[in-house]
Write a structure and sequence with these properties.
- The complex is a heterodimer of chains A (278) and B (217).
- Chain A has 278 residues and is an alpha+beta fold.
- Chain A folds into two domains: 70 residues, N-terminal domain of TfIIb (Single Sheet); 194 residues, Naphthalene 1,2-dioxygenase Alpha Subunit, Chain A, domain 1 (Alpha-Beta Complex), CATH 3.90.380.
- Chain B folds into two domains: 79 residues, Glutaredoxin; 111 residues, Glutathione S-transferase Yfyf (Class Pi), Chain A, domain 2.
- Helix content of chain B is 50%, strand content 7%.
- A four-stranded mixed β-sheet of chain B has the order 2-1-3-4.
- In chain B, helix 4 runs antiparallel to helix 5 and helix 4 packs parallel to helix 6.
- The N and C termini of chain B lie far apart (35 Å).
- The relative contact order of chain B is 0.14.
- The chains are: A alpha+beta (278), B alpha+beta (217).
- The interface between A and B is medium-sized, with 35 and 29 residues.
């Protein structure tokens, strides 16, 4: 029997930071241990070894039977990219709220002031959203936004183009204009590990074209952005993501969020979700 | 002045904030505190055997204590921040600089525990943090009764810079600041200072910002 929640892949550790002591953590409310054994990393839970793999800097585990291979990020293998392990941030929020916030652009001028947005440039222009049936992923494209400092490598304000992709319920990938290399996309991801329905650990990770910025500055830039979101996320109500239309009135700028919620409901992914109208 | 810095550290932020308020020029060296643990690397321990940030280097001088660094930056770039108006004010500044260590050890530890999963006795940290906030609240109320808006007197000093960041970031470690109206008013006063800069979790006062002007396309 398939289980739409347990059969997904989840990040459980950063390979580069997994010490000899291993890591005791949680996944979907259950204790999980990530440890080295004979030079390999294994993930165990309740006396069982879980299917696991190492990809995109992280250890991924599946508490059930993997329904599909781990999603592909072809850019991760492109030569010349710097791969940035940003490190975990724990957030007291639904894992789905963390993903949804990452998909939102409208908050940039107010939460990431003078970095990812600035007043009066608050308008989110028209963009396209689709659930791509052939790959079963949510995609938002042609997103344009004015940004004072779009990336560590951006010298001044630019209008940035974005694409958003949700390849798995607790993963979001963002492709954005790459200031030093026009024509390519910088890849910025949010891998979310659901500890409980209202508690998660977020593992941002990046694959960038930027030969100049020191690695630590890249890490600090992304941590700064994400930590600006953290206090907002911890105060969102209702705590669980409502999948049914209710009292919330979405605007045009929320199209990606609406598609994401619809897609979750269709897949039966309800961990961290609320099914009665808000 | 070289500051070994971490973007998310309140103790590093207070140095950056004072530099911004006094116009001091800092050269920032980002330390990969998380996830890299660079502060425990041999290279960093050679600079600061205590393995803590912030660290400041200026010529042959190396400072590893945030109160000492604040004092140095103020003495060099903004002596008024030392709070030498009266013996009482000077003593209060010294006392709050010492008190700030209690904030780092309680609220600061609760915060890195809750956010970054650093080890801590979280219950003890939160309890000690609440006690610290209650002491600041009481002191601020006492100051207000004599007409002063800041911790050491009627104008901002190092006392405020040292204690403000942790007080505002307490919710990051699961400690609410809702019960402390004097603290909230005081943090607004600090955020309203000309030249104020922010850090994640400490926002500028949008309502005090000048009307935004057009940004070139």
């Amino acid at each position: 029997m398939t289980d739409p929640i347990r059969d997904e892949w989840y990040p459980v550790a950063l390979v580069s930071q997994l010490g000899p002591e291993g890591r005791d953590t949680r996944l979907l409310g259950e204790p999980v241990r990530v440890a080295w054994q004979d030079g390999a990393i294994i993930v165990t839970s309740g006396g069982h070894t879980l299917p696991s793999q190492q990809r995109y800097g992280h250890v991924w585990a599946c508490p059930g039977t993997p329904a599909r291979p781990l999603f592909d990020i072809p850019e991760a293998d492109q030569p010349g990219r710097r791969l940035v392990d940003v490190g975990l941030v724990r957030v007291k929020c639904s894992p789905l709220r963390a993903v949804e916030n990452f998909l939102d652009i409208a908050h940039f001028p107010f939460v990431h002031t003078d970095i990812l947005g600035a007043e009066p440039h608050t308008e989110v222009g028209k963009y396209d959203v689709a659930i791509r049936e052939e790959v079963d992923e949510v995609w938002a494209t042609k997103v344009h936004f004015y940004q004072p400092q779009a990336a560590k490598s951006a010298a001044g304000g630019i209008t940035t183009e974005y694409m958003y992709r949700v390849p798995a319920p607790t993963v979001s990938i963002l492709y954005k204009t790459c200031p030093p290399r026009p024509g390519e996309w910088d890849v910025i991801t949010l891998f979310v590990q659901p500890l409980d329905e209202e508690l998660c650990e977020v593992w941002p990770w990046m694959a960038l074209f930027d030969d100049d910025t020191p690695m630590t500055d890249l890490i600090h830039f992304q941590q700064t952005i994400f930590l600006q979101d953290r206090s907002i996320l911890e105060n969102q109500l209702p705590h669980r993501l409502p999948l049914d239309p209710g009292m919330e009135i979405p605007t045009r700028a929320d199209l990606t969020s609406i598609a994401y919620r619809r897609w979750l409901k269709r897949r039966g992914y309800t961990y961290g979700a609320q099914l009665v109208a808000a | 002045m070289i500051l070994y810095d971490y973007a998310l550290s309140p103790d590093c932020y207070k140095i950056r904030l004072l530099a911004a308020l006094t116009g001091a020029k800092l050269t920032l060296r980002a330390v990969d505190f998380h996830p890299g643990g660079e502060h425990r690397s041999p290279a960093f321990l050679a600079i600061n055997p205590g393995g803590t940030i912030p660290v400041m280097q200026d010529g042959t001088l190396t400072l590893t204590d945030s109160a000492a660094i604040l004092t140095f930056v103020a003495a060099k770039s903004g002596p008024a921040w030392l709070g030498d108006d009266s013996p009482e004010m000077r003593a209060r500044v010294a006392q709050w600089l010492a008190f700030a260590q209690r904030l780092s050890a309680s609220i600061g530890k609760a915060r890195t525990h809750d956010m970054l999963q650093k080890p801590a006795d979280i219950v003890a940290c939160r309890k000690a943090g609440v006690q610290c906030l209650r002491e600041i609240e009481a002191a601020l109320v006492e100051r207000h009764l004599t007409g002063d808006a800041f911790l050491a007197g009627n104008r901002p000093t190092l006392a405020d810079i040292a204690c403000f960041p942790h007080s505002m970031l307490a919710p990051d470690g699961g400690i609410s600041v809702d019960p402390y109206p004097a603290i909230r008013l005081w943090t607004r006063s600090v955020r309203a200072l000309p030249g104020f800069i922010e850090m994640p979790g400490i926002h500028r006062l949008h309502d005090l910002k000048p009307e935004p002007v057009g940004v070139p396309e």
